[in-house]
Specification:
The chain is an alpha+beta fold and about 180 residues long. It has one domain: Phosphatase 2c, domain 1 (4-Layer Sandwich), CATH 3.60.40. The chain is about 30% helix and about 20% strand. The chain contains 4 helices and 7 strands. The strands form 2 sheets. The chain has a 5-stranded antiparallel β-sheet, with helices on one face. A two-stranded antiparallel ribbon has the order 5-6. The two termini are about 20 Å apart.
């Protein structure tokens, strides 16, 4: 399988610290991105922890059936959530830290994605990008309920408010695609 990949981050003009973290293990088919919660304590710590724990917990999955890989991906994100949450309990200065997390497990003819938050995954087909994941955000919930149009959501003042993240609560339920 031939894979072309690249990654880059930018803290932007508002933030003083880059809270993004990513990993690309082409040899294993593992790609993970996490975006620490901006404006919250230690978002950069949460994003790094999430990526490293998800990667470590996935382990060697290449010979497993899809259902077991999906279960392992689900568990890996939950493990990252638990570790980050427990850290906030013992380090008060990190209370409230959290991150989004999107992890891709790539096989020659298929993929699995685990996601929490609003870091999106897309697939490129015939020159067009198609969004695979759904944001866990206030505006997405409003769109789903028919209260906002996608166009209104794009300019909504609460467009950056996520409703699910890794680390801020004792439990999290990742979506698996």
């Amino acid at each position: 399988m031939f894979v072309t990949c690249a990654a880059g981050t930018d803290k932007g003009i508002v933030r003083s610290l880059n809270e993004d973290y990513h990993l690309m293990r082409v040899d294993r088919g593992v790609f993970i991105v996490a975006d620490g919660m901006g404006g919250h304590a230690a978002g950069e710590v949460a994003s790094e922890m999430a990526v490293e724990i998800i990667d470590d917990t996935l382990g060697d999955f290449r010979s497993l059936p899809d259902t077991e890989v999906a279960g392992r991906l689900f568990h890996a994100i939950q493990s990252a959530n638990g570790a980050i949450f427990r850290r906030t309990l013992v380090e008060q200065e990190k209370k409230g830290m959290g991150t989004t997390a999107t992890a891709l497990v790539l096989f020659p003819k298929r993929y699995l994605i685990g996601q929490v938050g609003d870091s999106r995954a897309y697939v490129l087909r015939q020159g067009r990008l198609h969004q695979i994941t759904r944001d866990h955000s206030y505006v997405q919930e409003q769109v789903d309920a028919g209260l906002l149009t996608p166009e209104q959501a794009g300019t909504h003042p609460y467009g950056n408010v996520i409703t699910r993240c890794v680390g801020s609560n004792e439990e999290v339920v990742p979506d698996i695609y």
